[in-house]
Amino acid sequence: VKVKIPFGNKYLDAIFSVPEKKSTYGVILTHGAGGDMHFPHLVSLAAYLASHGVLCLRFTCKGLNITYRAKAFKAVVEYLKLSDDYKLSGVFLAARSMGSRAAASVIRHLSTQEEDDFVQGLICLSYPLHRPKLQSKLRDEDLLFIRCPVLFVSGSADEMCEKQLLEGVASKMKAPRKIHWIDKANHGMAVKGRTTEDVMEEINTEVFAWIRENIELEDK
């Protein structure tokens, strides 16, 4: 279902992947610095989640300014929260690369508003912890303030997220967190000798299993 989401004086293009049965939880999904919501990995994940009963809303927001991207993400969260068509108990914010930095920023901001528990967790696909070859400057400031559960899915050969550095940041986080390493994958989740479909199947099943675990905890 295609929708236009109001954002300031313009609109963001978005698509709902709707499960057959009514969903109580949803995922908001967006892309990295390049590309848009039609990026194959996002399309694959959205279809997988919807086929397993989780509503997925993916959107496009161009722009390389992280503050701008975070504002757009926040507008999408508000839109879904107030939606009459899809009444959800909560959502997970999921995104690739730069989009996951924007999502982390939104969650950090929302967590200062104590009464808001609509956002249930954060899913970072290829979180860009540092620029390539520039490991001294870590983009970890938002992660350390987040309190809701966080899942990182990263390639063990990601040139923007060195394995030991992410594990070090994770050990300092207050939030419940899990890292799933895709063996030998780079920042674009490409692995020599494996098809994209094969890699995506691993990512999709991992993301869904983690969401289900966290929903079960929440519902107990």
Automatic annotation (TrEMBL):
InterPro entries: AB_hydrolase_fold (IPR029058), KANL3/Tex30_Abhydrolase (IPR046879), NSL3/Tex30 (IPR026555). It holds the Pfam family Abhydrolase_11. Residues 27-211 form the KANL3/Tex30 alpha/beta hydrolase-like domain. SUPFAM superfamilies: alpha/beta-Hydrolases. Gene3D superfamilies: alpha/beta hydrolase. This is TEX30 protein. It comes from Pedionomus torquatus.
